[in-house]
Amino acid sequence: MTRLSVVLFAAVIFSALYLVRVQYDSRRFFTELDRANAEAHRLETERSRLEVEKRAEATSLRVEKLAKEKLAMRTVTPAITEYVTAGASPSSVARGGKP
Length: 99
Fold this sequence. Notes:
This protein has one domain (about 1-85). The chain contains three helices and no strands. The model has no long low-confidence stretch (mean pLDDT about 85). The chain has helices at about 1-55, 60-70, 90-95.
């Protein structure tokens, strides 16, 4: 009977230690999951902010302003428009000749 008691006592101790280890791992994994969810939320918020900034940077008024100021571009008028026909060779147009 004592041998059976010792084996059962060892089984209870082993299962108790295993239970403690499983609970510890479970809490650790839950903490990691919570941190990962917080990081995902932070990244999603940052992505949304960056998309808003991108849309703000790409407005047509801003693009037109930068084109005028930094690239010295001007709006198209019929006076400065050059028309090229489909049959013209690039070299004759570059020299100012007729196609």
